[in-house]
Amino acid sequence: MTNLNESLLSDSLSSVMMRYSESFSAKTYGTENNDYDPLMSAFGITPELKRQNRQYWGRELGMCWQLLVVELCKHSYEKFSPALKYGGDEPCDLCLDRHAIDTKYRIGSGDSGTLKKFKANGKMLREEGFTPVLLIVRTDNLPAAVTACRSGSWVIYQGGTAFSYLQKKTGFDLCAWLETEAKKETFHIKR
Questions:
Q1: Which one, 29, 49, 63, 92, has the greatest CB density within 10 A?
Q2: 55 lies in some domain
Q3: What is the CATH number of the domain that holds 140?
């Protein structure tokens, strides 16, 4: 772990959040889970709003999560490296030492192609000497997808355990930072 310049890190994380806050504010949309997660809270996104366009929110919050994790690790972990590339495929988003980390907001797809890819990527990363790690924001993931990931030898952290993993690796509590920003309403979307 490197010395953490919290001001620089906070500015970098804020930059990612502000880009998404502005994008979410401009978006228009068309029972279920009423659970909040730290990203939803930081942006002031209600479950009702998210249900209006699940695919959009899942994709955008997933990319935001990925960028936040990459920025956090890039600024605070000495042995950070970017995504591994094998041909045109990136089986993970970043590496910390020999942990090949893939980030997901939620795993909801149970189609056979997706499940096979999870298994194959995990196996390939293990063969390359990496420990494949999935960091998932949500805990309401599709059980079949989680099972496929586990059978592909992924180590899975969901919800609070994903944030705890990051805090242990980086020394920075991203969940607390998001909660603080949620209270300040800095990134709440405006409609």
A1: 92
A2: yes
A3: 3.40.1350
Task: Report the DSSP beta bridge partners of residue 134.
Answer: 102, 156
Mean residue pLDDT across the chain? 91
pTM exceeds 0.70 for this model: yes
Does residue 172 belong to any structural domain of this protein? Answer: yes
Helix axis angle for 160-170 and 174-184, nearest 10°, is 110
Query: What gap in Å lies between CA 117 and CA 149, rounded to an integer?
Result: 9
Q: Flag residues of the chain having pLDDT under 70.
A: 1-3, 27-33
Q: Which residue has the tokens 């969940």?
A: 175
For residue 1, is it within any domain? no
User: What's the total number of domains in the chain?
Assistant: 1
Domain that residue 40 falls in: 6-184
Contact 137, 162 (CB under 8 A): yes
Rounded CA-CA distance 105/157 in Å is 11
Question: Sign of the CA dihedral 181, 156, 24, 95?
Answer: positive
Q: Is residue 128 part of a domain?
A: yes
Q: Tell me the two tokens of residue 113.
A: 């192609």
How, if at all, do strands 94-96 and 99-104 pair?
A: antiparallel
